[in-house]
Structures are given as C-alpha cells and as structure tokens.
Amino acid sequence: MLKKKNRKIMVGLVLLAAGMLAACSQGSSSEISAPPEAGGHAGGGSRGTGDRESVVVVMDPASEPAAGFDPAYGWGAGEHVHEPLIQSTLTVTTADLEIDYDLATDMNVSEDGMTWTVDIRNDVRFTDGEPLTAEDVAFTYNTLRDTSSVNDFTMLKEAVAVDGDTVEFHMNRPYSIWPYTMAVVGIVPEHAYGPDYGDHPIGSGRYMLKQWDRGQQVIFEANPDYYGEEPVIRQVTVLFMEEDGAFAAVMAGQADLAYTAVSYADQQADGYELLAFDTVDNRGFNLPAVPAGETDENGVPLGNDFTCDVNVRRAINMGIDRERMIQNVLGGYGTAAYSVCDKMPWYNEESEISWDPEEAARLLDESGWITGSDGIREKNGTKAGFTLMYAAGDSVRQALSEETANQLRELGINVKVEGVGWDVAYDRAQSDSVMWGWGAHTPMELYNIYHTASGGSYARYSPYSNETVDSLMDQALACSDLEESYELWKKAQWNGETGVTQQGDIPWIWLVNIDHLYWSRTDLQVAEQKIHPHGHGWSIVNNVDQWSWE
C-alpha cells in the first residue's frame, strides 16, 4: 500500500543541499556519478522529454550486493530480494503474495511431497543468445544447494532435467513452501557460469547489467530479447549513498527516487513528494523463556530468571503502547506488529493484542512481582528487569529500545539499554534480549525463529521450545497443498490451546513494522508495490519496468 505526502519548497534548502552534495562527494560511497543518459540533472521539478525512459534511484549502500549479482551468494535473497531483474525465476509472488509463474508454465508436487515437477517456457534465451533450458535450471539449483551462502537448500536432494523444458526437484524432505524458494532463485547459464559470474552476470530477465562501479552505482539496460512485456523504463541507474547523501541528491535534483529515513520526513523538496510503503519489516525483541542456569554446548549461558515467567512475558506484550511508539520513534510512519508474519497469507490474527497496562500490572502482581520503594518490582530479592541490546550504530533500534525501556519503567520493570555488535548479540541473546529486525515473504521466517533447532534443545535465536508448535510447523512443511499449509502455520501461532501468541508462550515481543520511505519526483509514477520485506533494499525496483513519467 502506498501513502503519499506532498511537500512544498523550503527556502534556502537548495543552497544547503549544494553544500551537502559537495561534501558527500568526497567519499566514493556517496559520489553522484549518474551519466546524462541516466536522467541526472540539476534542479528539482519535472524532467525534460528526452529522458522519459530512464530513472535514477538512490539506495542504501548496505543493499549493494558485495559478492555481485550471483544467486549463489545472496543476490535475490535478504536485502537483495528481487523480481526477474537480471535473471529469470521459475515463479513470482503476486501483490497478495500468492504464487504465479515466470519461467514456469506448470507445476506439480507428488502426494508425498518428495518430488516437484516444473515445466518451463521454451522461448527464453539468455542475453548471449543461448537458449535457457531445464539443464540450466537444474544446474542453478544444484549449484546453490552446494554453494549458497544465504539460502537454505538442505531440503533439496537433486534437481534433474527430464527433458529440455521439464525439471524435477527431488527432495530430502517434504517442503510445501518450495514455490516461495523458486521465486527468489535467479536462473544462471551453465555454459557461462564461473567464479566471476557475479561481476558480469548473464541472465534472461528484464534488464542487463551495463556498468557497475563498486560503492558508487549500477546501470541496467532493458533486455531487447526479453520474453515478457517490454519495459517502459529502458534504463535504470542505482546510486549507493548514505542517508545524508541521498537527501542531498534529492535537493540537487540528481535523483528521481531516493530512500530516506524518518528523520528527513518533515523536510521539503521542490518537485518531490514523500512516498511511504507498507512492510513486514518488523522490529521486536526476544525474551528467553527458560530459567537461568544452563549453558549450551559452547558454554554460552542460557535463560533468564525474570523473563522465564510466562506472565511476565504476557504483561510486557500487553503493557507496550505500540501506537505511542510509532508516533514517538517513527513519526507515524509504521504499523503495529504482533507477529513476524503480519499481513502475510499465513498470519494468525489471534496474535493481536490491545494495550492494557492495568491487566499487565495485575499479571505481574499475580506472579509475585511487587512494586518496591524505588518503583521497581521485585520478587524474592530479585529485581524485575532485563538488558535490551541493539545493534550499535542503528539509531532506529536504539530509539525503539529506549522507548521500550521508558514504557516498561511505568510498569515497574527496569530495562537496561545497551548498544553492542552482532558478534556479541547472538550469544548474549540466549540470556538477554536483542532488538531484532525480521520479515520475509516466506513462512520459514516463523520456523527459523520459533522451531527447536536441529540437534538442539531450544530455538536458534533465543531459548524456547514447544513440541506442539514444532509439530504443527513440521506438518505445514510436509503438506502437499500450499494453501492448506497456511492453516497449519496459523495453528503453530495459536491453535486454541498453545502457541507463540499472547494466550500461549509469547517468547518474542513484536513492536512495529517500519514503513519504507522514499522521496520521489512528483511526475514519476511508481507502480503499485507489494508489501516490502525486511531491508531497505531492492524491493522498490521489483517492478521498475512498469514505472512511467507523467
């Protein structure tokens, strides 16, 4: 969903932006180097008629694929989620996140879920002129199975080309949501794949990589032999800049669309408007659900004697005013989060909870956490409180952590906020809390957070385990019907008796989904966006071929 806010000119900012632009051009990561044919030009307002088939987009430097445009090393996953941009995919997701076809023309799964058969188009060629066949599909998936540094392919035994346009996927275990994996795996050419493929990718998607200046820009050109509808936008230039440089590029009129942060949302730019897109880019924190005292196989301490109390976790969940948090921290640009899969087809609305500080206080009283003379609750000599860590340098997570601490202080809970590096956070999350960021177009996000880890006693990111929740998610994966699996994912969240929601174990507290904000020229028509996943990255250009100029 798109939300727009029109902006008027603010006197003097153009001169300020010119200074900012000069300053940020000293570093290569923020240097503006859009060539004239890419649409870059000074000054705000409407573009001329000569460059109406191109756009210049500014993205967060973190979204630049460090290992190149190779699906084996993350291109197409995480921050780099894309539609068929350079490489084609077998499937795509629709606006409501159902499965549709790209290269695939038909798809079937065996009753036991162990074999997927996919028929593909026979009219597709790579940009070097070679035909794309089932052999390329099988090669791609077997390569990713063996080498992928991001996606999990342990469920895949082998991909086999049955003939030129049919591929079979033989699974190690049933995996009902395989079509969602197929939507993020770009098909590479077996004949042209090698160690430097990511720098010089050959694909069959809507665009070809024309130029890549690392740390600065990427330029794409429309693929003249694309099998689908011809792109309206023929050239796309992506600049990589930090937030201040991105806003300076807007003020100098050298960007058509640029990502931004809430700290810039109240600024004004001549000829631009602020766009806000709905996301499942959520923020929340874990609450270790077992008592302190254990250690894992590496000696890492597990558990927390305060958060192990389920009434404490329930009180925290209902004692946080999410709308107040959205206003105080996000300036109104966000939505309340109650799950890692808000708004997804497999989301269980039983996750939602109303703010109720009185009931939260009653639960704490019931569990014996009594308010002391200093306003902090205690029980048997133990103070009510925990440490909430955030990634050092992430101002939004820091602000959310501090807002959480402020609100829980009103309930008599003392929260210590601490900025740490991720190398520290992962281990300490086994006994303390971390302000996490999650959200993806797949139910595996739910599985990865709550399911007991293979060979372990608890879930991966925070000590928690529930056999019923595990069983329901396992059944969901084993289901031979994707639509039917959604109901099982919902039951894993809450089945009427147990789950990970407020009535159940509530081992994680979800706070907000952060709107993705962009400055856009007022005459640029950005095509309707599906809900963005976690990360201010490539999702925005998923349908850039459908953008247009007024």
Give a quick rundown of the structure.
The protein is an alpha+beta fold. Helices cover 22% and strands 23% of the residues. The protein is built from 12 helices and 27 strands.
Number of DSSP strands?
A: 27
What's the end-to-end separation, in Å? 21 Å
* Strand order in the largest sheet: 1-13-25-12-2-11-10-9
Could you describe the largest sheet, including whether it forms a barrel? 8 strands, mixed
Low-confidence stretches: 4-45
Backbone structural class: alpha+beta
Q: What CATH architecture of the largest domain do you see?
A: Roll
Q: What is the gyration radius calculated from CA atoms?
A: 25 Å
The CATH superfamily title of the largest domain: Dipeptide-binding Protein, Domain 3
Q: Please indicate the count of domains.
A: 3
Helical run tally: 12
What fraction strand? 15-25%
CATH class call of the largest domain: Alpha Beta
Mean pLDDT level: 90
The best one-word shape is globular
Helix content: 10-25%
CATH fold naming of the largest domain = Dipeptide-binding Protein, domain 3
